[in-house]
Write a structure and sequence with these properties.
Number of strands: 0
Helix content: over 70%
Structural class: mainly alpha
Distance between the termini: 21 Å
Radius of gyration: 17 Å
CATH superfamily: CDP-alcohol phosphotransferase transmembrane (TM) domain
CATH architecture: Up-down Bundle
Strand content: under 5%
Largest sheet: none
CATH topology: Four Helix Bundle (Hemerythrin (Met), subunit A)
CATH class: Mainly Alpha
Length: 195
Amino acid sequence: MAELSRIRKALASRFTEPVVRLLSKTPITPSNLTWFGFLLTIGAAVLIARDLLLAAGLVVLVAGFFDTLDGALARHTNRVTIFGAVLDSTLDRLSESALLIGILVLYAGEPSIWPVLLVGVTLVGSLAVSYIRARAEALDLECQVGWFTRTERVIVLALGLLLDQLVIALAVIAVFSFVTVFQRLFHVWRKTRVQ
C-alpha cells in the first residue's frame, strides 16, 4: 500500500509541477487556491442539486485539480503552515459533504429511499477515511494507506456525474471507502502493536 501512495504522489506531481512553477511567480497563495477550489465545489453542489450533472462533473474535476495545487504550491514556495494544513483538511471535508448534500437534494424527490440511504452511507464512509488519517497523524503515525483516498473518491464521483451514473459511483465510493477504513485501522493497529 505504501507503493500506491508513492504512485499517487508521482502522478500528482507530474500534473501539478508545471502549474505550480508558474503560480509561484504570482502573488497567489496556497490558501487562495484552497478557498477557490472550495468555492468551485460549492458551485458543483448547486449544479448537482439542479440536475446539471455534466457541468457539475466538469467543475468537480477542476476543483479537484485546485485541491492538489494548494499543497504543492505551499511546499514549492516554502509556505507550509499548520493553519494552512488545517484549513485545507477542513475545506476538503466540507467540500465532500457539500457534494453529497447536493446529490441528496437531487434524490430527495425520488420515490425510492435507497439512493438517499446510499448517499448517507457514502458520506459516513468518506468522512471515516479522512478521520482515521487525521487521528493517526495527530498521534504521530503516518497513515496515507488505502485504496480509496480523497483523490479516488473525487475521480469516481466526477465520472459518475459525467456519465450520468451517480448511483453506481456512490456504491463504488461507499464500498471502497469502508475497505479503506479497515485498511487504515489495520495499519494503525500494526504500527501501535509494536510500540
